[in-house]
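Ticket #4471: structure output looks truncated?

Reporter: J.K.
Steps to reproduce: submitted the chain below (339 residues) through the standard prediction queue, then opened the result file.
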Amino acid sequence: MKLNLCTLFDSNYISCGIAMYESLKKHCDDFHLYIFAFDDIAYQILSELSFENVTIISLEEFEDAELLKVKPTRTIGEYCWTCTPSTIIYCLKKYNLNHCVYIDADLYFYADPSVLAEEIRGKSVLITSHNYSPEYDQTDTSGKYCVQFIMFKNDPSGIKILNLWREECLNWCLARFEDGKFGDQKYLDDWPERFDCVHVLQNFGGGVAPWNISRYKIDDNLEMLDVYANKKSRLYFYHFEDVKFSDGKLRKNFFCSYHVSKSHLKLIYLRYLICLIRVNSRVCKKNKLIKKYSKENVFRTFLYAYFGLYKELYEEEYDKLSVFQLFKLCLKQWRKSLR
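Returned output as attached by the reporter:
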């Protein structure tokens, strides 16, 4: 099936969004991605890059009176959450699509997500579970389900739920837990019981993230075993929550507040980190605007990031290496990333 997807991000997440697109293009044979550029810089950069199978939509095209009314009352992040159902509605109506899958910009695909979308079958809506590891269960405050990968068919049942969700998000969509609500996410909690047209994704390879990675054993081929459910799958996408660069260094919460094993860092995180750096370097070379906008030196960013991750992975070796030896290792990886 041809997969219709949409996402949204501003220039702060430009490298994440492009990395996500590149992973999608690598693994999905037939798709179209609608990107809502949430500031002028992101819109100009994306327009100049001219990606295949992509439509860029500006805020000016997208925003309606109801969204603009609540915009001043929300933070940037809260406004993005508020807009999520509206982006799906826009795509379904504007482009007369038979379905649309909203995906977060900080996902990275390791296999074809069409397999996940096909699970919807005779239903109208597909949602994904957080599938928390027991030690990180935040169901009560953050919700059972994650808005990371959510699919709606353009049929009466799908549109009914989508419009309801939009109204709820317009009324309240804040980054705190309050009266059983949290952002755009807790609204999904009762959907499977409330609506018989909602399907919860069964393939746990769609929705791997820091809050559940500890429950999986993953081999070099990215085949996974859920140690609690004793079930197998492969890794379809990983949700890299809060993995981005700031002021030339990895964010302090690069690994969030979750434990990520060294095995998972090698298999999943290192690959993504190198992809982000490659995207940054290529975009900066080709686009003058992002050179002016970005305060960080691309190679210096890679240096800090690689040193930080190398220390996490090889702590004993790291302590024995000189700065010059570390620099040589970093330079080798840097050259690989540019290929």
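Triage note (M.O.): checked the attachment and the full token line is present. The chain has 14 helices and 17 strands.
Status: closed, working as intended.
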